[in-house]
Amino acid sequence: LVLKTKKTIHITTYLLRENLMADLNEVIPTIDLKGVPDEKLNQQIREASERWGCFKVINHGVSSSLLSEMKKTVTDLHERPHEVKVRNTDVILASGYKPRSELNPLYESFGLFDVASPQAINTFCDKLEASAEQREIMVKYGKAMDGLAKDLTRMLAKSYELADPDICKEWPSQFRISKYHFNPETVGKNGLITHTDPGFLTIVHGDDNVGGLEAMDHSSGTYYPINTSPNTLTVNLGDMAKIWSNGRLCNVKHRVQCKEAKMRITISTFLLIPMDEVVEPPSEFVDAEHPRLYKPISDGELRKIRLSNNMHDGESFQFITLK
């Protein structure tokens, strides 16, 4: 009884401390995608992407009902037995099911490559024995999130006045559908270790009931909570965005901390540059004052460097940085 009481006090104290930090340090920008002139909106997205590498969006055009229906769908899919989950195999490198592991013991996730393709979604749903209604929800959600990710990328490109801002027309998107197995014993521990995203841009549909996502300020190394409310989405910039922009955009380091003893469900949509397409910055990013920083490289090559060297939070840039 004494041990349980001490544990309860410890958890309560931790949560109070974390909630206070959240109130004091709510610094991650929130951008309203409606009612703002295009030029100003593009500039807001650019500034947040350069300073933080992440921001939150509201009035993004994805309905609250679709967000809720998708969350119910993926929560149900995560109830499948292990022998069904492992049918979700890789389509591209590391795109399939990820079970709980020694590195991330509280985390498991499904992966779905090419979310704008009804055929890809049907194949995924066949393997996981999803219902007809769940398939329909996933098709609508995939189309909406792929469209939003591309709209945000075009806004970012327009902010730099690129000759061709429609850079992402043929880029695919991928889902990562995650479940965090939080419990009283894991409060205060990592739910997902610090990492950067390997792709260009990520939209995170978080869990409104269970927080824990934190972004690192690259200038100080301090972590700040990303607190969301219903119908708010979080946007992260990844490794390929940093390479494409010649270092102008920040590939935000982020992590998930266990702050409550509750299951956490999130859906991330990753906008990817095609795996075999070699990426180098447009001419607008390179001049005498801004020399080229990185070797040309494809998304697939950078992922192989990350995986083969067990590098997760940007260390792989040492292999591509020009001296």
Question: Which terms summarize this structure?
Answer:
single chain; 323 residues; alpha+beta; Jelly Rolls; seven-stranded mixed sheet; four-stranded antiparallel sheet; 8 helices; 34% helix; globular; iron; 2-oxoglutarate-dependent dioxygenase DAO; oxidoreductase; metal ion binding
What order do the helices and strands follow?
HEHEHHEHHEEEEEEHEEEEH
Largest sheet: 7 strands, mixed
In the CATH hierarchy, the architecture is Sandwich
Q: How are the strands ordered across the major sheet? A: 1-2-9-6-11-4-3
What's the tally of helices? 8
Mean pLDDT: 93
CATH superfamily: B-lactam Antibiotic, Isopenicillin N Synthase, Chain
CATH topology: Jelly Rolls
Looking at the structure, what is the overall shape?
globular
Total E-strand runs: 13
Helix content estimate: 25-40%
β-strand amount: 15-25%
User: Over all CA atoms, what is the radius of gyration?
Assistant: 20 Å
What class would the helix/strand composition place it in? alpha+beta
The low-pLDDT segments are: 1-24
Distance between the termini: 61 Å
The level-1 CATH class: Mainly Beta
Domain count? 1
Function: 2-oxoglutarate-dependent dioxygenase essential for auxin catabolism and maintenance of auxin homeostasis in reproductive organs. Catalyzes the irreversible oxidation of indole-3-acetic acid (IAA) to the biologically inactive 2-oxoindole-3-acetic acid (OxIAA).
GO molecular function, one term: oxidoreductase activity
InterPro entries: DIOX_N, IPNS-like_FE2OG_OXY, IPNS-like_sf, Iron_ascorbate_oxido_reductase, Oxoglu/Fe-dep_dioxygenase_dom
Organism: Brassica napus (Rape)
